[in-house]
Structures
1.
Amino acid sequence: MAVTRDSMKKEFGKRSLWATLSGVDWAFAALVIAGAGFVLYRYAAVMNSYEIIILSGVVPAMIALGWHWKAVRWLLLAVAGLSLSAVGLYGDSLAPAETSFLLKFLISSQSAIMWMSVLFVLATVIYFAALFLRSEYAGRVASALTWSAAAMGLTGLMVRWRESYLVHVDYGHIPISNLYEVFVLFSIITALLYLYYEGRYQTRALGGFVLLIISAAVGFVLWYIFEYGGTGIAPLVPALQSYWMKIHVPANFIGYGSFSLAAMVGVAYLLRERGERRNPNGLLATRLPTLDVLDDVMYKAITLGFGFFTLATILGALWAAEAWGGYWSWDPKETWALIVLLNYAAWLHMRFSKGWRGRPMAWWAIGGLFVTLFAFMGVNLFLSGLHSYGSL
Amino acid sequence: MTTHTGRRTTGAILLDFLGSMNLAITLLSAVAIASVIGTILQQNEPYQNYILKFGPFWFEIYKSLGLFSVYSAGWFMVVMTFLVISTSVCVYRNGPKMLRDMRAYRENATESSLRTFRHKAEWSFTQAPAALREAIVGHLQSHGYRARIKEQTDHTVVATMKGAANRLGYLATHIGVVVVCVGALLDGNLPLKIAEQAGKVRIETREMPANEVPLASRLPADNASYRGLVSIPEGAKVNYIGLKLRDGYLLQELPFELQVKDFRVVHYPDGQPKSFESDLVIYDPSEPAPLEQTISVNHPWIYKGITIYLVSFSDGGSQLTLKAWPLTANDAVQELQGEVGKSLKLQSEHGSQTLELGDFRLYNVQPAKPGSGKEFQDIGPKFIFKLRDEKGTALEYENYMLPLEYEGRQYLVSGVRDNPNDKFTYLRFPIDAEGGIDRFMRFYAALHDKQKAQAAVQKTVTRQLAAAPANPSMQQTLTALLDMLLTQFKAGGFDAVTEYIRQSLPQEQRAQAAQLYVELLHETLRELYAGVVASEGGSVDAADHSRFFDDAVNVLGVLSAYGAPYVLQLTDFRQVQASALQITRTPGKAVVYLGFGLLLVGVFIMFYLPQQRIWAVLRQEGDTTRVLIAGSSNRDPLGFAQRFQSVCEALEARLKAL
């Protein structure tokens, strides 16, 4: 049988990445490039070289993300659309926040983040309802709500970025500089990580568990707003005025988000395992993903978190070398970042070298959350040090 | 693990131990625990603080364990060293295996062993083995697998793999950790510790001018690595920095002289600091001219391998002009000149006190009043000082230069505390129409003027008894009572009056009498105040006076706790600021960054480039060829299961179509 090499490839072989891309993918890439091109054309004069490098790095990263994870393209488009609408409505002053209906009730940063909060809490409830009522439809609704919440949250941050410039042109900064802002960031990143795995493993049964921790973060944000009125935009203290913040903080939160996700999957693992022992035909043993899948998601989340947390800690060290005069000062936040890394390094070693799986690893992942939580919040609440920007 | 037969050498046992996972995990835990201790226990504080906190017994124990500077304690260094050794041994033992494994296709795999794999498939085809083999190789190659073929007498093994770099990821990660630690060691204070053990260096614990620090506590300018601090007032020059160590310091000499020409704080419109900048000049003997550069937070100056960072700022000896209002009967108003960081003698009728000028702050940003449209506002300069009496006890004060507004009125504000851990208690001296506290001070003086007090008492008594028939004994009793109340008030304010009532009256009468007494006292004070206002040529009936009077009485009522013989008002200043600079020499930085790079690249390769192998064994059995496919991956088992299945399905279809 004579077949050409090319047709063989087409018929049986794995299609190359380029061949799998659809017109939508290319349109998406073109849009991202066009957007970045426009920004460079319009604003390159007021950007420093680091910012131009960061923007240039964001373009391929965003395209790769969109190609690898198709659903996120629509999220990015929605966020871009909503954010640009808000920026357009604002014009050159903050006044429209009170007069424009859309801004006041939907897409000013405050409103958008409120919507995000409501949608996340709602999604949590519906995810659990879907699990207990075995309702496929409710699950789809919960997913849609989570996507919407992420879109509103991201829009809120984007718009807040713009608002900071409107408060005063010198105040302008990326909104990841205080406790309120990073909690919103945490909620969004954790939700997106979850949504990725939801699509990847085709299961919505974990939604409630993961969103539980997001709802807790949302609860904290709301408490913080009402207790401290903590939504005001303040200028950056000199130590934070650096391009490093734009990469150090998000990398950190991918770490925090992944570790949180892993812990909540660990909870689901323990429940399923217990369900299988106690009541093999019960809800937990039949509705939750199989132990293999849970173990796998947990492992993947921890590796992703470990990678990004390592990256974030290294970026932090590079920044510290510039701002504080030393790449490592044993500052409490640095030290706790190291503790978090050591903890998960031990977890990974146990898995790789000793082949530990299952229950102990799930418990360990849950314990890891507390270590992570302390590094994230406890250090700022209880210990002093150089990282005292996000204190209460 | 290989099993050993016979006796093993000590070296082998040691190597086994050092490279074992148990030791590695134990060391990771030890570092983690030490780190936790180091963050919970505040590090490198003055020893005095620890003694106060833990008492002398536990202080000694903690000190001997090195808990006050965990990260440079000997045992911590040992743990870190073992962690490096353990990781190195691990790399040494596994590295060669892994490098071999990267190149090994394992084409000797047998069918029986492959059948035990989790991922496998078996088919029979009528096609000849050679054609099948070629199709299989082509198919797997198109999936990115590299292939080796081994022809045996009765069967053919196709061994393929991809992702061999995964092993490099392992090596890069672990070598990265070792490299980071080695680099950090170059910058750490291990050499210093050794020099100290050898008696070459002695930590200085006494405060003294830099040029008097003995030679044994000085480090030469060619020292390879250091990290220290120095505070330089505007205009001053230094050629040394201080290295803080345990309860003392060492002096590190610099190869140049460093001068701070100017220090600036640039502010946002609301008064928050936007940036801190220092203009520096380096006088390097090897350079023909001085070099200048401005540094700021996040923007250090790197000069010949030495990096100069601006870390903070403080007062560098601002000149303050003060007006001292006496809070005594007989002292006069004084004008004082002082410098922050220095002391003055302050004489009053209560004796001599030392005025220690601690700090001066030009900007004091506070949350703004709601509704002002701003979040923060600057409330003007303040200075902080201590008044120490001859016995050595001191009270600490902070006084604002400009009047501050409370509930629509202006006050001169002074805070006082007797313990640095407490918050300040603020006294608000009401400001008069001229913008000063002159009227308040006249009121105060009138209160302490016997004649004026007497006159006020008389007036009050006369008015109280105007309606009643003349009664000398009643008049006398009331006069005595008012005198007593006034005396108590002068001595101890409202507290003393309350105490007097408690002691002089039976309980059942107290509540009623107390109200009466306070009213009488107020009336007498108002008489006094009316006299003060009259002496200014005004009338107490004018609006505004009743609030002023209330404010003044409130201050007078608590003044006894103020504890100072004078109210110090800042009238003029010339600010001098000092820049706190961190100066470091870190030759290990490049090594550490190399390690960071290896670590990061290694981690991502290790996690996201799994090493995957697929074997195919073809065996001719009569007219048919049996094909056994098996695969394995060292990461991501579920993902590999899916990929393996789809590869197999496509492959089967392809082979059938041959």
Note: DSSP finds 15 helices and 26 strands in chain B.
2.
Amino acid sequence: MLTGWRDFDEALRSIDWLHRHIDVVFDDRIGSGPGRERPWRRATWPAVNVVETKDAFVYRAEVPGLGEGDVVVQVEDESLLLRGERKSDAPKGYEVHLRERAPVAFARKLPLPGRVDAEGVTATMKDGVLTVTLPKSKDTLPRQIAVKAL
Amino acid sequence: MSETIAVQNNGTTPSKQYAARAVAPPVDVFENADEVLVVADVPGVSIEQVDVRVENGTLTLQAKRSSDGGGTALAREYEVVDFARTFRIPAGIDAGSISAEAKNGTLLVRLPKIAAVKPRKIAVRAG
């Protein structure tokens, strides 16, 4: 059908509609409904930022709702492993109007950008942000070599 | 329903150019006979940085997030921006006794209902 801009707009709307429905189909929470609280698995949870400072790599992960005992932090073969579960905190006996904060079980393996001193790794949790500080391995820190006159 | 002053990056403008930005936090809304409960994920926010406001039948949640330390970014999956979200609240909420608490980066807002809208059980006496 030959269309004017109005119908073109309509077509875009249909694409958007389709998009949303496809997202629903591929969302594995489908069929769960508000009653069931099956944890949702997502490869990208939690979101992580990584920064490099002079002597360490710092990983920060957004884990709202998790306390210090709820996440396992491991360093193994050149990667950092974050594992845990955010259980459903839906109160009992309440009707659900909106549920955007799904319970989630997660395991993320993040590559380390360089060699680290595994013994010196520290992890802290504050206001739902996990901070893992991995000191760089001594061998990789820049070293100045004194030049001796012969 | 939700108010996002968000990052609209249509591929032509770098999102950096948007000055004051905020994202809408994901929320859960529950209700029982006594109250409406709003739970929001606001990682990196402590209770002093939260502003909960009720006016003209709307509930506004705002949270300032402070930057979390320097260094050279190697990977960035989230942005450290403020949170903001607005809801229209139903009639029958006792605006004066709304309370909020924050724990582990989640914000819990309790909106108690006024007595008139709560279901009341009438005792039936034998005559």
Note: Strands of chain B lie at 22-23, 27-31, 35-41, 50-55, 58-63, 72-76, 82-88, 99-103, 106-112.
